[in-house]
Amino acid sequence: MSRKITRSDAEWRALLSPEEYYVARQKGTERAFTGRYWNTTTPGRYHCVCCGAELFDAASKFDAGCGWPSFNTPSVPENVEEAEDRSHFMVRTEVMCSQCGAHLGHVFDDGPAPTGLRYCINSVSVKLEEEK
Ligand SMILES: [Zn+2]
């Protein structure tokens, strides 16, 4: 897939904090219950920390008890891209920002209705724009 936003590794490193770079550009994972949004219920929209693309609406956020922000569905589906991830001896579905390729987290099929999906997202990969 062609990205709308392409930057060199050095550019991302300069733009992001070390933790943002590690998770979003190197497919890292923040520790559970440590991120800034895991238990946030503030209304608003979550955007990609790298490029600002809108990804999730707080209205679809739910408490999955896993320590990461969890969403039922993306708010702008074309901004979210999925890929098979076979790391750590598991087969999971990785979730990325389709605009810039940022690693966001993973999607699982054990979420609540109506979608049955659980988008398990690193807080550090997203930025909440609070509803005014
Ligand atoms: Zn992005």
Q: What is the terminal-to-terminal distance?
A: 35 Å
Q: What is the makeup of the main sheet? A: 6 strands, antiparallel
Bound ions, cofactors and other small molecules, one mention each: zinc ion
Number of discrete domains: 1
Biggest sheet: strand arrangement: 3-4-8-7-6-5
Write out the CATH superfamily name: Peptide methionine sulfoxide reductase
What would your notes on this structure say?
The chain is mainly beta and 132 residues long. The chain has one domain: Metal Binding Protein, Guanine Nucleotide Exchange Factor, Chain A. 11% of the residues lie in helices and 30% in strands. The chain contains 2 helices and 9 strands. It has helices at 9-15, 18-25, and strands at 44-48, 54-57, 61-62, 70-71, 80-85, 92-97, 103-108, 118-121, 126-130. A 6-stranded antiparallel beta sheet has the order 3-4-8-7-6-5. A 3-stranded antiparallel beta sheet has the order 2-1-9, with no helix packed on it. The protein is globular, with a radius of gyration of 14 Å. Bound molecules: zinc ion. The site of zinc ion has 8 residues, from loops.
